[in-house]
UniProtKB/TrEMBL annotation:
The keyword Signal applies. InterPro entries: TPR-like_helical_dom_sf (IPR011990). Keywords: Signal. Gene3D superfamilies: Tetratricopeptide repeat domain. This is DUF1570 domain-containing protein.
């Protein structure tokens, strides 16, 4: 873990007939596509699903090529360490799934350790039913679902691969810079395209003055934070593609990672900030004329990514929409609806492992633990080596201890199935995190093995803010303030709201003041409040 914590990397009007067809899932096929880094459930044609999966894997591979990382994982990733993407319906359906109907939300990502998941539509809108390749050629200045998905995946990639501290503006600027990677058919990709959907923002809204942007102590307005994407992208693009400024960017990021004040680090790295402001302003004028540098990169020995395709079975298709809701996350009302909807399917398809696991998850969420146990038993009868079945067995025990029996001693009973889940899928960080949590939730001091288990999954769970908070809390309990800051700072710095409400930032401030006990108590208070809200919902 110390090696990982210490590393800093240099870095989307139709006729009524068409509308009805587009809205009707009964006429669509559900496919599962799997690549080295993704699992995709897609309600679309086989051809389009396969192309979507291949291009998404190529996007991941491009990110790895730029950072000189291996394209293929050292060992095949388990499902728990791949990002699962649900690709279905239209933007309106995705917005509803996000809990914001009518908002226009065209995709979202949930960074959950052991189950990272994203949701994106097949169709951009009712009037625009086109193939993947046609959509890729869309040059309208709007943020399309593909751009959103790639932007969010860059965040996932950044937290997973670069476990260092970055300034708030650069986190979004980096995602914008890399989200516009363009893929060519011969395997080449282009880095440096502008985010066309930000053009109004960049050229018609007030820019974020660099001195203020670099100064994390400057109070950020809503427009300032919005310009992390516009001004931030422009600055990151200029610094990344200017040969003289590029080393200075690395120097600046390194200093931030080492805890230096943002404005001080910027002055030391870039020199005269007024001069840099003039250069960026001139660069923006050049960019408006289409004069932006970029790189075409052809990976050595390029081979198109392999995509394993299969159509969902009737059993799987019968529960896929309910399964998708579970993976989105449910409140008490949603949990009851999903469990009620899946109950008959679990009885109808007793020989489907997928259905039984989906039922187990839904029943645990709905706090129907007897039903969850029966679904787990059916799953284990079908496959005794199902790590997910053992995981849901443990989750059922933990839920029963918390909400039904209210017997904290029962948490110990979850440890054996969690150990079994880990034995069957050593790559999955979730059982090891929950193993640690069985001690904390029971009110016991965690064992040394539990602490080691928690620390051991950092590389596979670093993208999950909740995991980082759990680990940072344990480090603060041990009064390891600097290590806790290293773990916590990336998510504290990515806070988008008013800095006065940045509670994790307050924890960082206490650590900087060497008030580790106060930092510990503050973080425990924050997490207890969040946990109580989760229980109530």
């Amino acid at each position: 873990m110390n090696k990982v914590l210490g590393r800093i990397r240099n870095t989307l009007a139709a006729t009524a007939a068409i509308a009805a067809l587009a809205a009707s899932p009964a006429h669509a096929e559900w496919w599962k596509a799997e690549t080295d880094h993704f699992i995709i459930y897609s309600e679309d044609s086989r051809e389009d699903t396969e192309e979507f999966a291949r291009e998404l894997e190529r996007f991941d591979n491009a990110l790895r090529t730029i950072q000189a990382l291996p394209i293929k994982p050292e060992e095949e990733l388990s499902d728990a360490n791949k990002v699962t993407i649900f690709r279905e319906g239209r933007v309106s359906g995705i917005a509803k799934l996000a809990g914001a109907p009518g908002s226009g939300i065209a995709g979202f990502y949930i960074p959950r350790a052991g189950a990272p998941v994203a949701f994106t539509p097949v169709q951009e809108n009712i009037a625009d039913i086109r193939s993947i390749r046609q959509r890729a050629r869309n040059t309208e200045a709007e943020m399309d679902p593909r751009s959103i998905l790639q932007h969010e995946y860059v965040h996932h990639f950044m937290l997973q691969t670069f476990p260092a501290t970055y300034p708030d503006w650069y986190i979004e600027a980096f995602a914008e810079l890399y989200a516009t990677i363009e893929l060519y058919e011969d395997g080449t990709f282009h880095l440096g395209n502008p985010p066309q959907y930000r053009s109004f923002q960049i050229y018609n809204l007030r820019s974020f003055p660099l001195k203020q942007m670099f100064d994390q102590n400057h109070e950020r307005s809503g427009l300032d934070r919005l310009q992390f994407y516009g001004t931030g992208w422009m600055v990151a693009h200029y610094l990344s593609f200017n040969p003289e400024r590029r080393p200075q960017l690395f120097q600046y990021l390194k200093a931030i990672g080492e805890g230096q004040d943002g404005l001080t680090a910027a002055k030391a790295a870039f020199g005269d900030l007024d001069k840099l402001q003039d250069e960026v302003d001139a660069y923006k004028r050049e960019a408006k004329l289409g004069k932006l540098p970029g790189f075409d990169i052809k990976p050595a020995d390029y081979v198109a990514p392999a995509v394993a395709m299969r159509e969902l079975t009737a059993a799987e298709e019968s529960v896929i929409n309910l399964y998708m809701r579970s993976k989105r996350g449910v409140d008490r009302k949603d949990a009851k609806e999903v469990a009620s909807g899946i109950e008959a399917k679990a009885a109808e398809y007793p020989e489907s492992l997928f259905v039984q696991l989906a039922a187990a998850e839904a029943f645990v969420d709905a706090r129907r633990y007897d039903d969850a146990d029966r679904a787990v038993d059916r799953a284990l009868a079908l496959d005794p080596n199902s790590s997910q079945a053992w995981l849901f067995k443990a989750k059922s025990i933990m839920g029963r201890a918390e909400y039904e029996a209210k017997d904290m001693a029962m948490y110990a009973d979850a440890r054996a199935p969690l150990a079994k889940a880990t034995e069957l899928d050593p790559q999955n960080p979730e059982p090891l995190i929950l193993y640690y949590e069985t001690y904390r939730r029971a009110g016991e001091a965690p064992s040394e093995n539990a602490i080691i288990a928690l620390e051991s999954v950092f590389e596979s769970a670093a993208f999950d803010a909740a995991y980082r908070m759990i680990l940072a809390r344990q480090l603060l309990i041990e009064l390891k303030g600097p290590l806790a800051k290293t773990v916590l700072a990336p998510i504290a710095f990515s806070f988008h709201g008013d800095q006065e409400n940045n509670k994790l930032g307050q924890v960082i401030d206490l650590i900087d003041e060497q008030k580790n006990e106060e930092a510990r108590d503050k973080l425990i208070e924050i997490m207890d409040e969040a946990e109580q809200k989760a229980k109530e919902s």
